[in-house]
Amino acid sequence: MKIAQISPLYEAVPPSLYGGTERVVAHLTDALTQLGHEVTLFAAAGARTRAVLVACRDQPLRLDPNPLKSDLAAHLNMLHMLRERQDEFDILHFHTDLIHFPLFESVAARTVTTLHGRLDLKDLGETYRRWRQFALVSISQHQRHPLPFANWLATVPHGLDIAAPTRIEAPADGGYLAFLGRISPEKRPDRAIAIARKAGLPLKIAAKVDAADRHYYETEIRPLLRQPGIEFIGEIGDADKTAFLAGARALLFPIDWPEPFGLVMIEAMARGTPVIAWRCGSVPEVIDHGITGWVVDSEDDAVRAIEQAASADRVRIRDVFERRFSARSMAQRYESLYRRLLAPTEQTEPLLQVG
Predict the structure, then answer these.
(1) Where is the Glycosyl transferase family domain positioned along the sequence (predicted)?
(2) Which residue among 40, 171, 289, 305 is buried most deeply as judged by most CB within 10 Å?
(3) Are residues 189 and 152 in the same domain?
(4) DSSP state string for 58-94
């Protein structure tokens, strides 16, 4: 098949540091190429990809030092470039939320739109009712809850291409607890600090601080970093994640929002590291409780899970990652979905695909 993958322009593909959607797009694009498809990636310049790159902006928006820029204009320019070439592709796979709907109505039947964010926002319901001809893919079943009426065709969990560590084993010194991602109220780094203090283990925080969250960091989190055993590392990239996650007894994911997926959870699993996560959003779908981690409802539950994490079967955790969350398994799910969309009369079973 000839497939166009359309990425957001905010981050590099894949991101050099923090970034979820563009990382998934990068891994999906490469995996589809390895499966033998002709894939063209529409993204910002500098993307590292096995596919044919169409550079739609001179650099990712986040890396552009010019403070005067328009993300809307950048994405509209990309969609114009795609529209001029739309007949070259069998499938157009969008990862750009819903901005493309008015421009691609004539070819909606051969499009896939994967929604990567939260959907409990005002105005979304009316929009997804209006453009029901676009096939939507969720990244978890929970993500669908605010829009049960939307044109859902499948749930395809995220996948990543991450090599296993040379040795998959628990840290000999008992390890530390890890927090990876972004400093923001919904990610609850304050809760992670409280859990680590109760458990009596060090906590290493590798996280990005967005400008929008700077006040929260300065007033709520930075004072907590002065406590013994709490280390703030800052934002890290893929090159540093294996050592950071593999050396941890567990990853803490104490979120307080309707998480659509939670890519960091499978990043930990890829290194054989168990995850201790709050019962929110997609968490119960991603974590196999008692196998790849523990789904908890309180700080005390989390502390008990930390004790169990010391004896987790890390090889088994990696095996679950390979089966459920590898880039290849994700690409094969999408491949099946593309084929069914292109031959709808041959469809004999539902399109729902979960991990």
Answers:
(1) 171-311
(2) 305
(3) no
(4) SS-GGG---S---HHHHHHHHHHHHHHHGGG-SEEEE
